[in-house]
Amino acid sequence: MAQTDSDRKVSVIQQKPFLRAMRAELTGSFGYTVNETLNDFLQAAGGLRFHITETWSVGGSYSHYFASDKATVGELENEFGVFPERSTIQWFAGADVSWVPVYGKFVLFESGIIHWDFFLTAGAGVTKTWEPDPLVTGTAGLGTRIYLTRWLTLTMELKDHIYQQAFKAGDKLMNNLVVHSGLSIFMPFGWEYEYQR
Predict the structure, then answer these.
(1) What is the residue-averaged pLDDT of the chain?
(2) How far is residue 86's CA from residue 122's CA, in Å, rounded to a whole number?
(3) Residue-level pLDDT at 105
(4) Which pLDDT value is given to residue 68?
(5) Was domain 20-187 assigned CATH 2.40.160.20?
(6) Is the pLDDT of residue 174 over 80?
(7) Residue 94 has pLDDT above 80, yes or no
(8) How far is Cα 61 from Cα 182, in angstroms, rounded to an integer?
(9) Which string of DSSP letters, residue by residue, matches the chain?
(10) CA 32 – CA 101 distance, rounded (Å)
């Protein structure tokens, strides 16, 4: 007995509204060092990343630091006569590899579906402090993108910069933990699926 059209079941695979593979990502962001006790470090940063596949990408970034003393420095100098030795950072430049293990979506106030991803990074670069030569730096981080359009995302990242700094008391392993927030532009701005719905 033949099935009528109304009896047939059709399986539909939803196409992703955002593709990363073979696209360049240009990011501008502002950052803040969260684990520094003596300085306030604000950063203006830029990065360029190329997504080889939907999950893997390579990229480079540059961060310029703007430093100011915290109130703790004045208290130590005025109340205790202590002048602590500090690691003042000027800039960082490096490259990394990124992996996206999670891609998902959620409903925002029952008015729309928001797509997002979670990524991990590992890389290396150099950090310029008061020393004449930049310091070799390893990096590890995690972050997320919230997709606003087919070419624009809100990007947030937490990254640890690890390097060895020389002090009068001896060498010390430094962890510069930075939170970044900014916008990413993906190019080309759009794409066409090979097989349309």
Answers:
(1) 85
(2) 27
(3) 85
(4) 79
(5) yes
(6) yes
(7) yes
(8) 13
(9) -PPPGGG-----PPPPS---TTEEEEEEEEEEESS-SSEEEEEEEEEEEEESSSSEEEEEEEEEEEEEE-HHHHHHHHHH----------EEEEEEEEEEEEEEEEEETTTEEEEEEEEEEEEEEEEE-SSSSPEEEEEEEEEEEEE-SSSEEEEEEEEEEEEEEEETTEEEEEEEEEEEEEEEEEESS----SS--
(10) 26
C-beta separation of 26 from 51 below 8 A: no
Cβ contact 158:142 at 8 Å: yes
Distance between CA atoms of 146 and 135, rounded to whole angstroms? 33
- Provide the residue ranges of all domains of the chain, joining segments of one domain with +: 20-187
Tokens 């970044």: give the residue.
180
Residue 141 pairs with which residues in a beta bridge?
121, 159
pTM of the model: 0.83
Question: Which distant-in-sequence residues (6+ apart) come within 8 Å of 163 by Cβ?
Answer: 127, 135, 136, 137, 138, 173, 174, 176
The answer to whether residues 119 and 98 touch, using CB atoms and an 8 Å cutoff, is yes
pLDDT at 48: 98
The residue type found at 23 is R
